[in-house]
Amino acid sequence: MKRDELVWFLRRNRLAVQASAAPDGSPQAAVVGFAVSDDLEIVFDTVETTRKSLNLRADPRIALVIGWDDAITVQIEGLADFPDGDELTRLQECYFRVYPDGRDRLSWPGITHVRVRPTWVRYSDFTQEPPHVVEVSPAQLG
């Protein structure tokens, strides 16, 4: 699998299930609307007081599942951060191309944007027999 193929697949989807760890170690999951940059950065918005935001500020490890409708999925593990300055502006523009209404949410108190940089990716296509499954690090995506 190549990076541009993965980005293409991710861009065909708009929702992800993200999972993070609460301070006591218990798992927490939420559905988020996301966008993906050409550099395979996943970005979503949230409010600073949400469980996911608080969890990711304390422990940046995150997992995402994307694309379950057509028996093809991508699982991603990575590290989340909260960019600012020029990085935030660049990622917001990426996000606003998918979610133009995200600009309206900028007026919400505590709105923030989360960037996920993948460290591991698993692509699974269950429409084939046998299923096509590829596990890679982003560096292997060439």
Task: Explain how this protein is built.
- The structure is a single chain.
- With 142 residues, the protein is of the alpha+beta class.
- Helices cover 25% and strands 41% of the residues.
- The protein has 4 helices and 8 strands.
- Strands 1, 2, 3, 4, 5, 6, 7 and 8 form an 8-stranded antiparallel beta sheet that branches.
- The protein is globular and about 50 Å long.
- The N and C termini lie close together (8 Å).
- 23% of the residues are buried.
- The mean pLDDT is 95.
Low-confidence stretches: none
- Write down the oligomeric state: single chain
Number of strands: 8
Order of helices and strands: HEEEEHEEHHEE
Query: pLDDT average, as an integer?
Result: 95
What is the structure about, briefly put?
This protein is α+β, with helices and mostly antiparallel strands and 142 residues long. It has helices spanning 3-11, 51-58, 85-98, 102-105; strands at 15-21, 27-33, 35-36, 42-47, 61-66, 72-81, 111-125, 132-136.
Task: Supply the key terms.
single chain; 142 residues; alpha+beta; eight-stranded antiparallel beta sheet; 8 strands; 25% helix
Would you spell out the secondary-structure blueprint of this structure?
Elements: H1 3-11, E1 15-21, E2 27-33, E3 35-36, E4 42-47, H2 51-58, E5 61-66, E6 72-81, H3 85-98, H4 102-105, E7 111-125, E8 132-136
